[in-house]
Amino acid sequence: MVTYNKLGVKKIINAAGTYTKYSGSLMKEEVLDAMKKASKQFVDIDELLTKSGQYIAGLLDVEAALITAGAAAGLALSTAACIAGNNKYLSRQLPLSDGLKNEFIVMKSHRNPYDQAVITAGGKFVEIGNAIETFGWELEGAVNEKTAGVFFFVQSDMFRASLTLKKIIEIAHRHNLPVIVDAAAELPPKENLTKFVNQGADIVLFSGGKDLRGPQSSGLMLGRQELLDKCRANGYPNHALGRPMKLDKETIMGLTTAIELYLNEDQKARMEQWEEQTDFMYEKLKNIEAFEIELGYPDQPLTQPASIPRLFIEVDEEILGFNKEQLRDKLAQDEPVVIVETDKNHLLINPHMLQRGEEKIIVKKFKDIIKEE
Ligand SMILES: *Cc1c(COP(=O)(O)O)cnc(C)c1O
């Protein structure tokens, strides 16, 4: 059997979070079982997408659901759906969209690296607001006959410059425009799965490979049936914009299973494990002279999910002899490879994707690095 070991691919201890670069999350056995079972027979992909969507919509008590090849694929499909609808002639033109209704209004403070998926599908962004503020009249004023929809990026909801989702939905709906919400990494808490559709968002996107712990290459789209049908028309397996965003039957069954498990999971027990792990690391690392450690919850924007405790470590370069970025790189060097993130002021330890016991390996690695110096 080919193994990571045989290939020389190193194991990572993931104290960073559900980063795509670090392979997202780990699937449960039940998810893998469902995938294996799914692999044993042929099915019609369209039927499977429709029926898995209906099943998930039923579980979540929302109007409609659709599995996609990731949240970013969902952004692209949403864009195609808003521009071309289920008009086959228009669908086939994408991503070329000159002359079509192809404008998407977005707050400047909501632009982010994932929104290229909108551009990829033929969307043109029309930005409103600035780094300090955005007004409702800017949204009203930007609407014209070429406007196809409004994008909203949940993480930026925390920025002062952002209008609230509620306000955006109210104005957009007054102009009959759909609101597409990127909530890819907004779990936990599990209530967020339905929060944004219940607020009236027309399409809400989640990653299947982050907290849901489905296949890494999967995503979940929730929203209005009529719009999701248009996404499906522009998506795999049809010859359309979404054709390269392929979804196998195993992935579809894997994510469906992962969502069902997620809804029945003891979220409190997960939180307790994260707290135990951060408490342990805090106790073991707090006396290191070069560290100033705070145990808490992120309050700054762009550190999601905010519901998980973190260690925020300030590193005294004078005492340690190197800075926090160098420490981060040393942690990632040689096995056991420990991956952590840094922000402007801290080295961050996030327990979200830690396996039980890995907190001990992390502490040892820190101590080994500091002792060596
Ligand atoms: C991870 C992420 C995405 C992309 O999700 P995939 O499922 O990896 O395609 C999009 N937007 C945000 C905010 C994300 O965090």
Task: Describe it.
By secondary structure, the protein is α/β, with parallel strands linked by helices. It has two domains: 4-20 and 266-372, Aspartate Aminotransferase, domain 1 (Alpha-Beta Complex), CATH 3.90.1150.180; 42-263, Type I PLP-dependent aspartate aminotransferase-like (Major domain) (Aspartate Aminotransferase, domain 2, 3-Layer(aba) Sandwich), CATH 3.40.640.10. The chain is 40% helix and 16% strand. Strands 2-8-7-6-5-3-4 form a seven-stranded mixed β-sheet, with helices on both faces. A hairpin with a 4-residue loop joins strand 12 and strand 13 (347-349).
Brief summary:
This protein has 373 residues and is an alpha/beta fold. It has helices spanning 4-7, 29-38, 45-60, 71-84, 88-93, 116-120, 136-142, 165-174, 192-198, 225-233, 249-264, 267-285, 317-320, 324-331, 358-372, and strands at 12-14, 64-68, 103-107, 124-128, 147-153, 179-182, 203-207, 219-223, 291-296, 310-315, 337-339, 341-342, 347-349.
